[in-house]
Specification:
Blueprint (H helix, E strand, L loop, with lengths): L12 E5 L3 H12 L4 E6 L4 E6 L2 E2 L2 E10 L2 E11 L2 H9 L2 E6 L5 H11 L3 E7 L3 E7 L7 E6 L9 E3 L2
Parallel strand pairs: 1-6, 7-10
Antiparallel strand pairs: 1-7, 2-5, 2-11, 3-4, 3-8, 5-6, 8-9, 9-10
């Protein structure tokens, strides 16, 4: 593939999990000039039909999003329940937890799942238009990939942040 070719499954977003989303937005804004940020409260009833390793569960999180060089950049602070974000924080501390390869149709999403050939770790729905899930790609790709259909950009943030 040359640099001019479009990859079959392009990166749409990179996600950092953090302990304190406000502090983290401030640091990225101050040190790198990133922002403005849209902040979302992903909790029930807007966040629904959630599961972890195939079992129904409830979890919640704060999410903040901005665009950097054409790629989405997301911060997630877990706020409740069992979830892979908190597991990551407990095991490794703050850092890159997943890379998103979001799709716009169920068919494209199914194609990604077939190509990656990995189990779903966690997922759920946000509102009526967004379905998301995380794929555990070890031992082949060594990353967690988020995918699904729809984007949080379609939602109204609970607030914004910028310096």
């Amino acid at each position: 593939m040359t640099s001019l070719q479009t990859p079959k499954h392009a990166i749409s977003q990179i996600c950092i999990v953090c302990y304190d989303i406000d502090r983290t937005m401030y640091e990225y804004s101050k040190r790198l000039g990133w922002g403005p940020w849209k902040v979302y409260d992903h909790s029930a009833p807007m966040l629904h039909d959630t599961y972890l390793r195939g079992e129904p569960t409830e979890f919640s999180m704060l999410g903040a999003e901005t665009t950097v060089g054409g790629i989405g950049f997301e911060l997630i602070q877990p706020t409740g329940g069992k979830n892979i974000y908190q597991e990551f924080l407990d095991e490794k501390g703050e850092g890159v937890q997943h890379i998103a390869v979001m799709k716009h149709s169920a068919e494209d999403s199914d194609a990604l799942i077939a190509d990656v050939d990995a189990p779903r770790l966690m997922g759920g729905k946000i509102g009526e238009s967004i379905e998301f899930y995380y794929l555990e790609t070890n031992p082949t790709l060594k990353i967690v990939i988020e995918s699904g259909t729809g984007h949080a950009i379609d939602l109204q943030p609970v607030r914004t942040f910028s310096l």
